[in-house]
């Protein structure tokens, strides 16, 4: 069985977000076009990315066939030896969390899932245990990329912002589920808040960070150990439309920016 943590840490630190929008595909057979285009773009970008991230909401919005398509594309990603992140942001009482963990981690060994920690440790634990059994990973929402993320996440709790309280819990869990240098417990930290990325990086040394917000949300390329930069629209629909050639150029440009020598005072 392959291991998500081992796989993603030896690949380029870029994540392709697949968020299909039928209106952006011309013609009638929207689902067929999304299927073909997603397979093409995944295959073209596979050597240049750490993982493909499926945003369940966009597939659910396509109805039962859309949901089935997400699973079909995940199976295709596995054939391409491409690690899968299920961006489902699940969070529920423990017994239900167990069912979610079964659906996304146990059913797809070596994959990862995004989890909302708001219900507490007993609700997160089934995901952590399933990730350990299935050699997968859990990315816990710590500081999200959206403009309103501060409404709750920045509230002061016991002398520090709530996102730091969550980060401390994630850091403790990540020690418990360590795999070599890294851990099965990572964090989602929005690339639209580069200062928060830097600050949290220090306090969570074992956690890989899934960093969404690159491109369409205004996030720039950020460097740092263990940062997996994620772009959906900017890579999947570069320039606002499906185009595999442009997607490939955009992925190369992001990777070149990551490799370029650092300007004085930048990070
Ligand atoms: O804090 C978060 C957590 C998740 N997301 C998800 O990432 C993509 C971003 O899409 P773009 O087109 O690159 O803006 C999307 O699926 C979000 O649900 C996030 O943006 N921020």
UniProtKB/TrEMBL annotation:
Family annotation (SUPFAM superfamilies): Ribulose-phoshate binding barrel
Active-site residues, Swiss-Prot/TrEMBL: 89
Pfam families, alphabetized: OMPdecase (PF00215)
Keyword Lyase set for record: yes
Residue ranges annotated for the Orotidine 5'-phosphate decarboxylase domain, each copy included: 13-248
SMART domains found in the cross-reference section: OMPdecase (SM00934)
Recorded metabolic or biological pathway in which this protein acts: Pyrimidine metabolism; UMP biosynthesis via de novo pathway; UMP from orotate: step 2/2
InterPro entries: Aldolase_TIM, OMPdecase_AS, OMPdecase_type-2, OMPdeCOase_dom, RibuloseP-bd_barrel
GO biological process: 'de novo' pyrimidine nucleobase biosynthetic process; 'de novo' UMP biosynthetic process
Keyword terms: Decarboxylase, Lyase, Pyrimidine biosynthesis
PROSITE patterns: OMPDECASE
EC number: 4.1.1.23
Domain of life (superkingdom): Bacteria
Catalysed reactions, semicolon-separated: orotidine 5'-phosphate + H(+) = UMP + CO2
GO terms assigned for molecular function: orotidine-5'-phosphate decarboxylase activity
Family that this chain belongs to: Belongs to the OMP decarboxylase family. Type 2 subfamily.
Annotated protein name in UniProt: Orotidine 5'-phosphate decarboxylase
């Amino acid at each position: 069985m392959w291991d998500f943590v081992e796989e993603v840490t030896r690949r380029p630190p870029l994540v392709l977000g697949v968020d299909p929008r039928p209106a952006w595909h011309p013609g009638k057979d929207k689902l067929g076009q999304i299927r073909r285009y997603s397979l093409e773009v995944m295959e073209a970008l596979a050597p240049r990315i750490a993982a493909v991230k499926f945003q369940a909401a966009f597939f659910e919005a396509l109805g039962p066939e859309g949901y089935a398509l997400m699973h079909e594309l995940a199976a295709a990603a596995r054939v391409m030896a491409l690690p899968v992140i299920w961006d489902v942001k699940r969070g529920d009482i423990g017994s239900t969390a167990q069912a979610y963990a079964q659906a996304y981690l146990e059913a797809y060994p070596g994959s990862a899932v995004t989890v909302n920690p708001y219900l507490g440790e007993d609700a997160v634990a089934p995901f952590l245990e399933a990730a350990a059994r299935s050699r997968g990973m859990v990315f816990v929402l710590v500081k999200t990329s959206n403009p309103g993320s501060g409404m709750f996440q920045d509230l002061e709790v016991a002398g520090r912002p709530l996102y730091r309280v969550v980060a401390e819990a994630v850091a403790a869990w990540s020690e418990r589920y360590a795999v070599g240098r890294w851990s099965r417990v990572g964090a989602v930290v929005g690339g639209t808040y580069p200062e928060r990325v830097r600050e949290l990086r220090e306090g969570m040394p074992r956690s890989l960070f899934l960093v969404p917000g690159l491109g369409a949300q205004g996030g720039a390329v950020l460097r740092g150990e263990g940062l997996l930069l994620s772009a959906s629209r900017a890579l999947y629909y570069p320039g606002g439309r499906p185009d595999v050639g442009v997607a490939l150029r955009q992925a190369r440009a992001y990777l070149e920016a990551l490799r370029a020598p650092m300007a004085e005072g930048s990070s």
